Every structure is written in C-alpha cells, then in structure tokens.
C-alpha cells in the first residue's frame, strides 16, 4: 500500500482548521470536526485539489471514470473531487436510502455495525474509481465500498482520505489499494 503525502502551505493551513471534539459521539471518542475546514473556501479548495491528485496521472490527467463518496462526509468531499476531475460522482449510501436495485455489504465500524449500498447500475464493468471519504479508522467502510465496486465489475484505482487514524488498523484491511491520506493523527 502506498501513502502519498500532499504537503504545501495551503494544505497545511487547511488541515490546521480541523477541530478536536472530545467525547463525541460518545465518551472516550475524540471526534475530528471538519466543518471549520469546509467553511473556509481557500482551505476547502486546497483539500479538494489534494484529494483529486489521487485520481490523476503524473501529467495531471484524470485516470478514473467515477468518484465514489461514502455516506455521509464522503459526499461532501467526493462530489467536488469528481467535479475537479471532470468525472461523475456515485454516492455509497446507508441501507434503505437508494430508490432502485442495489448491491449491499454489511461491515463493522469503530463502535457499531452498518450496511452500505450502491445502485446496481452506478458503475459499468471496467470503470476505474476513486474512493473518497473523510476518515480512515478501522477500514470497514472503505473495505465494504471496495467490495461493492468489485460486485459492479469495476476496479478501485485508489482511495483518498482526508485523515487517517494511525492508532486504528484501517490500512491493514485495504490490501494493496493505493492510499492517499492528507493527515495522519
């Protein structure tokens, strides 16, 4: 697995806007609040550009057909990454939120269980996709999304995460997927 760092003064300043919220959503959890970053146009632009780099080749050309964003903060980051790359966006939703035929995968979170779904026609066989989300923790969400991509007959080109929680084993569950993280905590 490869981790590409995306350093730079604009990105460093953007990442510094992430706020720590202790004991949320339950005691003992230190929540990383990205809303201050999202509220700053310059910071958000730096983050979107850095995440989109994971879907480009060395010359800056897009090498993916779609960007997948995992519910829910992956929607916030993934849609503008798709726009930056000039490709479509596909939401990966919690169970029961998509109106047509879906594929589903259940998995474990840091402190819960969940099921993710994707429309069966969201990806074409052979599509190359970039997965985008805010936090890599246990890796359950990313791994489940990788399984959904495979079920559609598509290929994961890479995974782009805003943050990685290094004290959790998330990267271990991703196999040899190309991983881009902007901040490791």
What can be said about this structure in brief?
The protein has 185 residues and is an alpha/beta fold. The protein is built from five helices and ten strands; from the N terminus they run βαββααβαββββαββ.
Distance between the termini: 18 Å
The geometry reads as: globular
Rg, Cα atoms, Å: 16 Å
Q: What CATH architecture do you see?
A: 3-Layer(aba) Sandwich
Using the coordinates above, name the CATH class.
Alpha Beta
Number of helices: 5
**Biggest sheet architecture:** 8 strands, mixed
Number of domains: 1
Main-sheet strand order equals: 1-10-9-8-4-5-7-6
Oligomer: single chain
Written as H for each helix and E for each strand, in order along the chain, the element string is EHEEHHEHEEEEHEE
Coarse structural class: alpha/beta
Q: Quick check: average pLDDT? A: 93
What portion of residues belong to β-strands? 25-35%
Number of E-state strands: 10
The CATH topology: Rossmann fold
Helical amount: 25-40%
Low-confidence stretches: 1-7
Task: Give a description of the structure.
It is found in: Cytoplasm. Pfam families: Pribosyltran. By secondary structure, the chain is of the alpha/beta class. The chain has one domain: Rossmann fold, CATH 3.40.50.2020. Helix content is 26%, strand content 33%. It has five helices and ten strands. It has helices at 9-15, 35-38, 41-52, 73-85, 140-151; strands at 3-4, 19-22, 30-33, 66-70, 88-94, 102-108, 113-119, 128-136, 155-164, 179-184. The strands form two sheets. An eight-stranded mixed sheet has the order 1-10-9-8-4-5-7-6, sandwiched between helices. A two-stranded antiparallel sheet has the order 2-3. α3 packs across α4. The longest helix has 13 residues, at 73-85. The relative contact order is 0.18. Residues 1-7 have low confidence and may be disordered.
